Amino acid sequence: MSTTTIRLPEELKSRIETLAAARGSTAHAFMLEAIAEAADRLELEQDFAAEAERRLQDMQRTGEYLTVDDLRAYAMALARGESPARPKPRKMADEELQRFRSSMRRTG
Q: What pLDDT, on a 0 to 100 scale, did the predictor assign at position 104?
């Protein structure tokens, strides 16, 4: 394990020590856990953004999409414990797809 030194404002250091002690832990363990949780959260955000970008590119390429209403009905059925069929993608008309692609080029 490598060693890293960080400078903490006294007030933050005191808060960390108090919280760690209340959990029966050390300030060191508290900070390690907090850093690991922050890294996990940021990795999830990056994965989500990459998946959203991939799906947007698929939509731009194929013209297929799902409506919010279809997704909501599917999610609600799952929440009720049902086994619904996955919603079928809808397909943009050629003119609609061209407008969509054009708008994507304008927005970057």
A: 87
